[in-house]
Amino acid sequence: MVKDSTGEPLIGASVMVKGTKTGTVTGIDGDFALDKVNKGDVLVISYLGYDAVEVKWNGQPLNVTMKSDAQALDELVVVGYGVQKKSSMTAAVATVSQKEIQKQVTSNVATALQGRAPGVEVLQKGGEAGGDVSILVRGAGSFGSTEPLYIVDGAVSNNGINSLNPNDIASIEILKDGSAAAIYGSRAANGVVLVTTKNGQSGRTSVEINGSWSYQTPSKQLDFMNASQWRDFANTVADNSPAYDRAPENVNPSNPNYSQDWQDLYYRNASMWNLSAAVSGGGENSTFSTSLGYTKQDGIIIQSDYEKYNARVNGTYKKGRFTINENLSLAHTSKVSPPSVRYIEIPTIPVYDAYGRFVSTPKELGYSTTNSDRINALAEIYAKDAYTKKTDITGSLGITVDLFKGLKYKLNLAASYLNTHGYTHTPQYASYWNEDGSADSRFSQPYTSLSESRDENFNYTIDNLLTYNGKVGGHNFDVLLGTSWMREFYRTMSISSGVHDLGAPTVTTYNGEGTVGSNELNSALLSFFGRINYNYMDRYLLSASIRSDESSKFAKSHRTGYFPSFSAGWNVHEEPFFKLPWVSKLKIRGSYGEMGANFIDPYSFVSLAYGPVPTILGNKRHFGYVTRLAQSDLSWEKAISSNFGVELGFLNNALTFTAEYFYRRNNDLLAPLESLPSSGQTIAINKGTSTYYNTASVENKGFEFTLGYRKNWADFTLDVQGNISFLRNNVIKLGEGVQPIRGELMSGKFNDRPTITKEGLPIGSFWGYKVVGLDDNGDFLFEGADGNPIAAKDASENDKRVIGNPNPDFTYGLNINLGYKNWDLTAFFQGSQGNDIFAAAKYMYYFCYDNNCLTDALNSWSPTNKNASLPIPKTDNYGGVNSLPSTFYVEDGSYLRLKNLQIGYTFDKKLLKKVGFIQSARIYAGVQNLFTITNYSLYDPEVSSNTLFNRGVDGLEAIAPSINARTYNLGFNITF
Description:
By secondary structure, the chain is mainly β. Helices cover 5% and strands 48% of the residues. It has a 22-stranded antiparallel beta barrel. Strands 9-14-15-12-13 form a five-stranded mixed β-sheet. Strands 3-2-4-5 form a four-stranded antiparallel β-sheet, with no helix packed on it. The two termini are 20 Å apart.
């Protein structure tokens, strides 16, 4: 019989006779039987998540107890180009296990990382089916991409981890400091995420099926005015605005009992389905694991959905000195993004006409406060067919040769291919008609249009790795030498018909006049690297690595970069003098490393020109105008990282604690520099055509703490894991002549941007005026540069200041797992504290009087309500004055969320034994985003996946603010 350390039988453990192909797997009671076994034969017993055991058969029945990896200090952790014992690690690496990932029902595995790994922020825009997710490892340190490098089974992924099937994942490791990540050199400045997918186990073939159904509901609705409230408010606005009279429909309504909340038209309840099936197994010399997955998610925002198909085949084969392993995954996704502009129209205008068609409202009907036409956006939203489809293929093939004891050579071939197809087809439509039945041109698109694009990303890598593991007395060595050759290819093509008609609403192709664009980018990277890990008696730990990268993205004189790292650790508890019985672990470690970033397009060091103005580049005459001057001195962005950590274990590691201090400074950041007019260069900051220079520096520093407790009492189990991260982000310098970088435009009605990136401030700090009260006319008073109040209409750029910080003071997570007999309960809390939100959507909800406004606006300033905090409602607010970026928009974005609550039941093994063919079965029910404690006034405090210049901004221009979903789940896991 085979059982775990608690006495529970292990079902499906592999039992093989060493040196033969004879084997079996344990049954439902952990029992097994083998024929043709001789006395003295050695049985090799293995089980996923447990240390393998070798037992010599003495002719008597065997009782074998297996020790789980979670109980062993020497748990293996995946690191760059290999694995390492956790007890001998000196770097900062966070691990998220398969068990943690599978407890959360999601269409994107990245969301399962949120709050589970200290120092790792997951930013997402809630409510979107298959919505974008961004991962930040210890803060933003680059003005280009802030995403980490993603490695899936040894292959660099072109699509991150967005398309992975969560049920395929064995573990995710995040390399956070320089010692861990420097082995990846010029691509590791933002950290590295290593994903390992499941492999088969030797023994009987097993089939695993996982399924879930989810019901999603909008987690919150805002309180907009009803028709009666709106009429009174709109009349007040008109009375305060000399340029306009009261709208006739607000004085004598034609349908006084009609009132429409447009939120009900944009948001809905929606379902999500997840289903996956996996088959795995193997013999003495080979293993396999195959899986299929399907996800279908309807969004809580109308006209949005997400569909994903997954397939994966992993295998290993061993013969003599040779081991071959292959990993191949295929994913196809189709996403219909929700309409980003969702006007909350005034509640008095109709949605449909008498024929059930979407209808707009001309100004002559007398509904609009500013005598303007009101276009029903739903007409275009439902007419348009738009989607983005992606096909993602990632694979690797490894051939390992055991040269002699401890020395191995591995050839690893890896590739990743991503094809993206964007498609938008808008047939001719109308939402208002003249008396003769013809479409009113103000409310129609009289032609059918098409926009289509195709992008291809392909990379391949050839790695040659030589590894040596040796031991001399108490001295242990782990040596890696390697070379890597990588090629990247990117090509895109697009076409747009513009205003040219395709011919009919059903026509979906176009061959006429239009706008055509294309681009192609190729690059290469040649690398040499080495690493040595050393420990003495598992007490004294040393690690050092060096990598050289040569990239074609830079001019020849600046193509090569060197990235060293060094770390050391001391397992104090291994010392003979350490005599504290209640302290089972004490490790002190520190590290230093240098990493790079080459997040620029190829050819960025050469000039860029377009026609038809003649230009001379070098000694050749070209037709075009220069939009970017050559900058041959472009070089690597370089990140210098240091880390100091302490690990503690108490009561035989039932209670664990880890503390980390980290510091990372990113130097030579590529920043856009505005050229002089005499250069002839047309420059637009943040438009991608500026000349870039290595001038800027950004630092991130902070602390991370984790605390865990595990305990078993007979039928009861408890596992509590908590973490908290403190981080400070600061721009050290932008460089001489580099202007502060501004975020996106807040409104087309006035030229102002609510964020700024400049020296001495965090990236994307909120920038605007400080509101200090209201004047006698009901307008905002801002604090001037001299500290005295000034009227909003008199404010200038010099009166602006920092009004908020989108970065949190700290983020945290708490995961509680309880078990009683066959029942299990998981509660996962996650939160953020101290971050500000610039609620730009309040511009539309308080100052745009052609749309509906929040009921708070009813308490605006008036001659009879001079103690109000909101300014006087008048149409002048639409174009600035009171609506300029100010502290009025800045709110506390702190929140605590019950991210996941799940209860499950695992069926009794004796009951399953009666069925015969089922090894294990579990059912569960849960709720995600059950509640959120926050002071944020709009829909949800998780407002954006943007990590840089617009982080924490909710609803720029007419873009709708973020809304999240509360999700109810039912699911099952069955193994045959």
